[in-house]
Amino acid sequence: MTVELPSDTVSIGREIKLARRRRRLTFARRLFSHPSFLVGFVILVLFTMTALLADVLAPYEPTKINYRFILAPPSAEFWCGTDAYGRDVLSRIIYGTRVSLRIGVFVVVMTGILGTLLGTLASYVKWLDGLIMRSLDGLMAFPGVLLAIALAAALGPSEINAIIALTVTFTPRTARIVRASVIVVQGMQFIESAHAVGAGHGRIIFRYILANALSPLIVQLTFVFAVSIVAEAILSFLGVGPPPPAPSLGNIIAEGRSNIQEAWWIAVFPGLVIAVAVLGLNLMGDGLRDILDPRHSGARDKT
Amino acid sequence: MAQVKGGELIFVQGSNPPSLDGMSTSSQASRNINMNIYETLYGFSEDIKPIPILAEGVEISDDGLTYVFTLRQGVMFHNGDEMNSADVKASLERYRIVGATKNLLAPVKDIEITGDYEVTFHMEEATPTFLEAFSSPRAPAVIIPEEDGDAEAGKNSFVGTGPYKFVEYVPDSHVTIERFEDYSADTRSDGIDGFGGHKTAWLDKVTFRIIPEPGAQVAALEAGEVHILEQIPMPAARRLEDDPDIKLYENLRWAFTTFIFNLNVPPSDNVKFREAVQVALNMEAIMAISSEGLYTLNHRWQYEDTAYDPGQIGAEYYNQADAERAKALLDEAGYNGEEFVILTDPNIPQHGRAAVVIAEQLNAIGINAVINQVDWPTALNIRMQDEGWNGWTLQMGIEPYLGPVGLIATLASPARPHFVVPDAGLDALYQELIKGATVEERLETFKKIQAHLYEIFAIIKVGDSGLMHAARSNVKGFIPFRFPRVYDVWLEG
Q1: Structural domains of chain B sorted by starting position, each given as residue range(s) with its CATH number in brackets
Q2: With contact defined as beta carbons under 8 Å apart, do B263 and B45 qualify?
Q3: What is the pLDDT of residues B97-151, one digit of tens each?
Q4: Is the CB of residue B396 less than 8 Å from the CB of residue B409?
Q5: With contacts defined as CB-CB under 8 Å, which chain B residues touch A245?
Q6: Do A84 and B353 lie within an 8 Å CB cutoff?
């Protein structure tokens, strides 16, 4: 995506801005005409709405115990049945999506900030490159979810610790992607020009480099979001996520597992929700990649 | 009953034995295995009376100051040596140092070898309950070879006199024991009797397999890969009730479900606050959920209709679910929303489930209850600290079985009481209890203890909880007890 630079340096900024706005419009149009992005987007919106409207949607309190309705099968009264405490599984799932969403969003934000910071520093400040990237390589040597489990287990079971564990796990990959695209953008002519007209480091980094290195980051972050939801479920399932009685998709499944043969509904319904949510996020990520990656979008335009 | 010799039996339990050193641990996971490997001088019979096992008998002097134990002759250790009085003295001296309940030997001034097969205990003072305490299987005073007398806790050679001998221990996988061919059976009785009696090892080999996940345990049993489950979840038990391949064994008086306060930190340092919790709780809901339906409501600190049944004392505080009274007591206590941390673990499922129900009931009356769920070893570690927790859910298995002395010993000095801060009143009553000369005297003392426990509210009795074992139907001779007696059990077909 090279931009034709006018010789009049004063108008560089305005030209870039205009070009960017034009691109953004066609970008949105192309996104929503992309079928897998659209499906994924709808699923994500539904998931988010469920989480936000949990108070309205859930038929019962998620932690309301009723020992007279232990392990009740799905019925008109309890659509997804009840668990070993007589709690309504549907209400727990609905509130559980809230935990997943909250953890997903926090991890994406934290990973985005840290990854961008480290990736940009590594590529922009040459002497930091080796130090930062080798440290991150060290972290990446551990399989992702295993590292998260180890950290969460060491820190103790809580929502904040789960967020920290997942952020530490996903930041290295994000930083690496940011670094790679920053290096590409850095070598482009318009950056040289910006240096030539005397733009400061801050302006160059934020206005020119990062703005143009954003696309891969967005794809990476949707991926982080999807993986966070699954990873949170894994952590909760293993008992190192948010502690009971707070419902989370993972700990609902964990609680259902010892009665899986007698009360399949406890584990199956939250499992389906996780599967659909992750499918949606992956579809969205695929769509984004198709459109943002010039080679992919080029191929698509031809068809 | 035609017993069949041979075969391998696989017994499943949920957690690793912390140690296979019989005397240095009071863990049930260890006892399951150890009581098939080791034996004691005295132990409990089926009806919980001290009976001689490795001892021939005991002569107690009239003043209660000397106990002369004679030993059975010709009892072989797994290493091929014969047991004699030197082994007994070395074992008990080691017990004084590494025994998990070494206090039980506190009344013994010294142990003297008075013959090849005779040891004499000289007592500090007369202690009528000594023989009962000495027979306790909680952390049994097992007899091991003299050579192991100096071994640190957990570092002995796992050699005992029992009908099975140790083969190997692979943590997180299994412990294997095999028949001890030179076992010296106690021919004084016809069959097994509690921890003693005439034991016969029919099986060649027994494997104790560690499978933490209850669902996986049930699947393994149904598939016939394993023979006995220490505990089957009740929903699975109900499903398999009519399965001809599976037999269920109810162990109704397995444990007391209890809720213990930390008296050292606010808000649980306030007796009015604790009383509020006591009257707020709906024991029926807690028991129905934590035991999955296998429970008896019981306010007593003994099982009903046993020798030390204290009757209705304290019943007026039990299973009240009285939110109004609880809130009034909270006001009186000056409670203002401080965090009330409930320590629990998921490894013993009743612990975690009870904690969730208790937390919900306390939140309902305005207590800011939060759950700190950690794994069982961590929970044991945290509760030994003076701060950092307010309440703790505990299944007391072996202690209620031992009777009042064994139970109250965990709540009174010289032990560190479960509720952290010793209670002078209870300590005095405990001394009175262990010095009571007769059952009647001790029962009177125990009634005072029962009343006192419902005055200090340092520990809450939630209910009596049962344990359901399950076995393949070709397992014969299995009788539910305080540990799986894999002797006198055989496999048919």
Answers
A1: 8-210+474-491 (3.40.190.10), 253-466 (3.10.105.10)
A2: no
A3: 999 888 889 899 999 999 999 999 999 988 888 999 999 999 999 999 999 999 9
A4: no
A5: 356, 359-360, 371
A6: yes
